[in-house]
Structures are given as C-alpha cells and as structure tokens.
UniProtKB/TrEMBL annotation, chains A, B:
Keyword Cell wall biogenesis/degradation: no
Organism: Rugosimonospora africana
PANTHER family: DEHYDROGENASE, ZINC-CONTAINING, PUTATIVE (AFU_ORTHOLOGUE AFUA_2G02810)-RELATED (PTHR42813:SF2), ZINC-TYPE ALCOHOL DEHYDROGENASE-LIKE (PTHR42813)
Coiled coil: none
Record domain Alcohol dehydrogenase-like C-terminal: where: 183-295
Keyword tRNA processing: no
InterPro entries: ADH-like_C, ADH-like_N, ADH_Zn_CS, GroES-like_sf, NAD(P)-bd_dom_sf
Protein name per Swiss-Prot or TrEMBL: IMP dehydrogenase
Membrane spanning residue stretches: none
Listed cofactors: Zn(2+)
GO molecular function: oxidoreductase activity; zinc ion binding
Amino acid sequence: MRATLIHGPRDIRLEDVDDPRIQQPTDAVVRVVAACVCGSDLWPYRGVRRLTAPRRMGHEFVGVVEQVGAEVATVRPGDFVIAPFVLSCGTCAHCRNGITTSCERGGAWGAPDRDGLLIDGGQGEYARVALADGTLVAVPGTPDSAMVRGLLTLSDVMGTGHHAAVSAHVRPGSTVAVVGDGAVGLCGVIAAKRLGAQRIVMFSRHVARQKLAMDFGATDIIDQRGADGVARLTELLGGIGADAVLECVGTKESMQQAIDSNRPGGYVGYVGVPAGGPELPIGQLFSNNINVAGGVAPVRTYLPDLLGEVLDGTIDPGRVFDLELPLSEVAEAYAAMDERRAIKSLIRP
Amino acid sequence: MRATLIHGPRDIRLEDVDDPRIQQPTDAVVRVVAACVCGSDLWPYRGVRRLTAPRRMGHEFVGVVEQVGAEVATVRPGDFVIAPFVLSCGTCAHCRNGITTSCERGGAWGAPDRDGLLIDGGQGEYARVALADGTLVAVPGTPDSAMVRGLLTLSDVMGTGHHAAVSAHVRPGSTVAVVGDGAVGLCGVIAAKRLGAQRIVMFSRHVARQKLAMDFGATDIIDQRGADGVARLTELLGGIGADAVLECVGTKESMQQAIDSNRPGGYVGYVGVPAGGPELPIGQLFSNNINVAGGVAPVRTYLPDLLGEVLDGTIDPGRVFDLELPLSEVAEAYAAMDERRAIKSLIRP
C-alpha cells in the first residue's frame, strides 16, 4: 500500500510500504476513507522537532474496518470507524479516569507498539489499529462525504477544542477568549458555545477564519495581539479578563497571551503542543490565581457525546476543512497548512 | 505603640512607632489580641527575599475594634474581628468573583495604602485597618484563649490550606496527597477531610507533625521524598498518583514533588509562595494532563464558611500553634519557626 513518510523538514513522501495485517488478537485493519494533517505535524515539517529517522505520518483518520483479530468485540468488518489520535485500551486506571492519552497500554500512530510492531500512520491507504476495542468508535450506517468531514474532526481537532474548553472550566454564562484561529481554536469556539458561554472572543487576524469563528458562535473578534489585544479584550469584557481562555497554539507567545487574557481566578485551558518549551511564569500565575489546565486531549473519552451532535447536525466542525486533496498530493496538503493557505487539509486515499 | 520590624536577615526588632489613628473614613483601628508568624515571613528573614528598607511585619491577626471611620458599617468598636492577610474592598469585580487577593483597591499589611499612608503590620499592639468593611470579619461574642487560636488561623493558614484543597478539586472520594507539613499543609489536611477526601496522604518526616496530621484526618504518612516518596504514594493508591495534590511549600523541589505525585488528569492545588521562582515543567504537565491551580489564597472569601465550623468545634485548626510568646519575644517566635522548633508561633501583645 501507499503511506506518507516524513524524511526531514519539508520533505513529505508517499511511498510503497507493507500492507498491514492482523498481528495481535486485539488488532483491526482499517481501510482509510479520509485522513488529515494536524497542526502538530507541522512541528517536524518545519524542523522545530528534530527527526532521527524517517517516520510514518498521520494520527487522524476515519475508515472502514476490513479485518479484526480474534479478541476484538466492539467493531466488525464493514463498520465505519473513527480513530482517535492516540490508541488506548479503555480498561486501565487512566482510561477509566477518562485520561485515555495516559493509557498504560496505549500507543501512537506511526510508532512501534509495546511488542515492537509498527502501528501504521493514518495518512495512508490502510492502517493496523492496535487495541481496536479501546481505540475505535463505530458510527452507525455509512456517512456521506460531507458527514465524513465532521466525523474526521472527532479524531482530533473537535475533541481537542472541547478539551481546551472543558479544561478552561467554561460554564453557562462564562466569558471566553480563544487564542489560536487554527482548526483547534475554531473547534474551541464550537465547544465553548455548546457549554453555554455567554461571550466568546476570538483572537484572529485572518478574515476567513474570523468569519468561520463567527459562524461557529464567536461574539467578537480581536485582530490585535500582545498588550493591545489584552487591552481590547478587557475593554470588551467590562474591565477584566476572560473567565476562561482557550490556548490552542503551543508557543511561548501564545501561552503568555492566554495568561494575560485571563481574569484573576480564571482558567487557561491549553491544548497546543508545547513547541519550544514555554515556561510558565509562576509569579504571575500565583499572584493572580491564574489556573492552568489541559494537556494532550483525551478525545476518545469525549467522542461518544460529541459524535451524537455531529450526526444530528447540532454542531458542524467539518467546516474547518477548507482543502481536500487525494493522497497522491499529501505533500501539498502539508505545504498549504504550513503557508496558512489552508486552515486544515483533508486527504482522501 | 510597639510594633515588629525586620531590618535584614534574622534581624527582627520590636520598636516604638506612631500609634495608629483613623485616617480614611473607611478605616478601623484594631487592638491586636493575637498575631502570628507566617511561613512566608521566613523568606525575608532567611534573606531569600531581599529587603531595600526596614519593614513592618505581620499579616495575620485578630483583635478588638477600638475606633471606626465615618463610612464603616459592618464592624463597631468592641467587636472581635479577624483580619485576613490581604486587605480587600469586597465590592470590585475581583472581590465579587471571590478573588479578594486581586482587589482593585486592596492593600498589604505593613505597606502604604493607595494614598501613601502606612497600613500597620499585624505583629504590633494596634493596627490601622484600611477598607475595614471589606476586610474585617466580626465574630459573635468574646472568644476565650483557646478559641482565639482557632480564629487566628482563619486570617491565613486555615483559609490557605482550604484554598489548596479547593484548587486541587478535592471532591468526596478523592485521593489526596499533601506536600508540606507546616501549618498550611496541616490545615490542608483538615480542608481535604471536610471536602470528603477518602484518602489523605501526608509527606512528613517530623514525628510531631505526622501525629497532628493524623489527628486532623490524614490516613497515611510517607516519610520519604523524591522518587522514593512518589513510589510509596503510588503503591498506597493502587498504582497511580493522587487525584488531588496540595502543594504547601513553594520551592522548586516541593512543586516537582507535587507534580510527580499527581495522577494524569489530576490537579495540583498550590499555595506556597513561590520562592526562587520554580518553573513549571510544561512538557510533563502537557503529556500527563497535570493541572496546576491555586495561588495567593483569597481567605476573606472562605472566612464566613470556615468561621462557623471553628466556632462550633467541627474543625480545630488552632492546634497548629505549638508556641505562644509575648510580643516582647517576637524575635524568638521567628527563630523557633526558622529552626523548625515550632510549627507556628503565636504572639500575644
């Protein structure tokens, strides 16, 4: 089959690799229907994160189950499934606590499992899915092309935006600020709205993203950054920062913007993969009771609730995909996101 | 009157200073009945925090109102009152949000108010209290000597321990670890118990403090630190860290101990004044969804609830005072805490 590998900065290649097959009784093999490029894929693409060897790419996909191992009970061949961006067993203490990303037996797409056997990446034609029962979520019926986009967001960005909002303790009536106008930040707007936020302010300088944010439920846009942006926010919110700030980028600057945008006693919910190791300014946090919550989003835990709302049309996060390409053009899918020509690229094998 | 000043490391002096008087219509003058030395007073005492000039000391006291300004409505001469460790107006947006420590008009004991007029410290015979209505809490009747100890903890350590527990999201059934066996950590045990914690593990190497922690509701003591302490904790808790960790020290080492003791998805509630600027390890926090909440405790907000339980004997935090001295021996009150001969020193003018 064909699968995507990264060889170095801006060096994305589609290559012939071994077809996946069932190797553990808890495995499934899934034919990928749609995959996408993640903002975090851009860290190795841009050379921010160093590679020691070529690596299979893709950790967000949906597809159809082709085969299952002897012990798989919850999905069957023919099922349309969503694959969260981390594998998880569903039964260990951390999974039971809802933190599936800390699963004791879990694994990562494009990396070896605990027995050293490669788990395929999602940006390919097929994938071996380890821990299929804990990891995959089956969708009733066969979704159409538009619905596929919505379901695909549940493998990462919608669940991650939701984690930012949950971690930021968004409540009915909350004032919310969102730092990051990428797909996760935009899904954060959807999440904040469904959790009852009264005011949702998006920091964005990009007209198309501003518009989508407003469609998703943002009430205000601020196109300034730094101290000017914070001054505008506090002006909008009657003199104090936001109750809840969603940090959806992961740089030192974006984290500082988020902290500065939070009112004393508020929560910053952060989900941006820390790139370049932002240090948290403990003195500022302490003095102002700024609480910092979040991390790598346990989207598997949120998937059942959010799935229902995607299926019944209550939320439409699939609109974050503004570029759709065949797998053969996967390199362009990366380039378009890197150059901010696309919010998020969808790839169809 | 006589009041305590610090002139430099380990240089505590009792000096004659001006008697306080009403200077603003929102002032009260309080005769101090009991004051105490705070763990954070030890930072300048030890030279960890530099002084540029001699400074009045003490931010925890209880006493009797002598005089009030024309606009003071909630306390009257003769009232026995508790003074929280930060002054607050009670009416600004931050006070209404319960974060009285971020009060827009608030001030600090031993420092100038917004008009440049000194607010006395608490370790003296009398104190001018600015913003008396927002700051002071009156207690019904005249407490006896034992009750004074309990009430005095509400000016800081009991409310601060409670803030650690609230920030750490202690819930009925939570597993809790407490880092720091000083007065705040011990009060954190009381707070965790009253919030319904099922298991409360105290890190302590000090026999008298271990015993008091058990009396207050701790279920287990760990006398190891670092990786050994964390290993013992996870062994006690069935293989994972604590749901909630109370960080009640403020050093880089204690914060790391707290983070390492937290389970994925748990909360570290921290209230130790950061000394030496611990940086938070963002990569570890992110990967494990360790949430860090807390800061300078808004004890004024918690005071009414906790006051009732001290008055009716439900909780007895006054037991943290294991040394009681006249004001004339205030230097010894510091030395005993510095040398860990006392958990907490009470001073009677």
